[in-house]
Amino acid sequence: MIGVVKIGGAEGNKLGSLMSELSARTARGEKWVLVHGASGIMDRLCRERGVEIRMVTSPSGYRSRYVGERERELFREAALSYGKMIQDTLAGLGTSSEIMDPETTEDVFADRKDILREYSGGRTRILRGNYSGTISSLRSEKINSVIDRGLIPILPPLGLDSESGLSLNIDGDRLAASAAKAVNADILVILSNVPGLMKDINDPASLIKKYSSEGSWEKLEEYAVGNMKRKLLACREAFDLGVPNIHLADGRVPEPLKKAEMGDGTCLTL
Ligand code: ADP
Question: Which residue, 50, 98, 222, 235, is the most exposed by fewest CB within 10 angstroms?
Fold first, then answer.
């Protein structure tokens, strides 16, 4: 059994329960890849260093961060320091892991999105000089060899731009989807600060428990706004890539993986 789990990067995300569960599961012989975000630490670094945080909503409603040259360096620092925090937490539980920095592992590649479109006040503006990217390819050899050594590979939300050799900010949820395909995962769990996809974001009882290929994807998409839109896009990509079990689940609970497997979140199955 091999699984991929993505944990959000928002500050206040509780690492403890996921890490103890991952540690216990790897000790039992399960294989897991851990993907993480970096948004919270990035926001804090920006505030500390006096860099403006600039979030942009595209005409199709996707929110993303504008990443200039300065932000690119800060994002890399934020991602790697959060990875180190995760690694130290796992080490404290007796579990070894390896941070997969694409600048050294050359496993995750991205195409730079130099231009961002910002929709605001009924108008679309073009922002140039952006340094985020979308995944162009993911080589699984190094990730697999880390897993085979009994370690947990930790994937930061970074992808190597083969043109410039720089690592770019990429979306962690979509990285998790690509990683799940690359390692042939049986399960992908995307954890965040909500119980899953809800019809009404203010009503946990409106949680959508199940989606399978007979359902209407468009209907599902109608419910997602803001950051959930991109999470759902990542699920769609994983679904299309043939990942058999995909869960959008709550990361704030004890044993979040077990809860997800038991169907506590939103479960998408082929
Ligand atoms: P993370 O940083 O943990 O990856 P995000 O903040 O990116 O998490 O995404 C989760 C957020 O998506 C929730 O906090 C919630 O505000 C938002 N959201 C938007 N629409 C929905 C929905 N239909 N169901 C659940 N959450 C939603």
Answer: 50
